[in-house]
Specification:
7 helices; mainly alpha; N-utilizing Substance Protein B Homolog, Chain A; single chain
């Protein structure tokens, strides 16, 4: 198998986060590593770091999303949309991935898996987080 691109890996991460969300909503026991191994054919640190990073920081990530969702909460969005937002916020806040790449990757996933309104919402949330982060870091 050819080495997967980061874009392809983000799509896998989105799928894993989606699956975990389904398990949680239906109160089904799961093991994160088993969910990852069910989606990925080979071990990948980028994927593991992102999935564990999102799950470890889920409360903060969701509170940040909710802060920028106008009169809405992340749990009202579809599971795919939640996964895209959570992964993107994780990458913006906890990794060295350039912000513009994180936002572009999120938009590409949203174009593929979300409707136009949700894509715009995701773009708006990430843009606001990007700008608030930039203002916070420059102080």
């Amino acid at each position: 198998m050819a080495k997967a691109t980061r874009s392809e890996l983000r799509e896998k991460i989105m799928t894993i986060l989606y699956q975990i969300n389904v398990y949680q909503q239906h109160k089904i026991a799961y093991d994160i590593d088993e969910v990852i191994n069910g989606i990925l054919e080979v071990d990948n640190e980028f994927v593991k770091d992102a999935v564990y990073g999102v799950m470890t920081n889920l409360d903060y990530i969701d509170s940040l999303a909710n802060k920028y969702l106008n009169n809405w909460t992340i749990d009202r969005l579809g599971f795919t949309d939640q996964a895209i937002i959570r992964l993107s916020i994780y990458e913006l806040m906890y990794t060295n991935t350039p912000d513009v790449i994180v936002i572009n990757e999120a938009i590409e996933l949203a174009k593929k898996y979300s409707d136009d309104d949700v894509r715009k919402m995701i773009n708006g949330i990430l843009d606001k987080i990007y700008h608030s982060k930039d203002n916070h870091e420059s102080k």
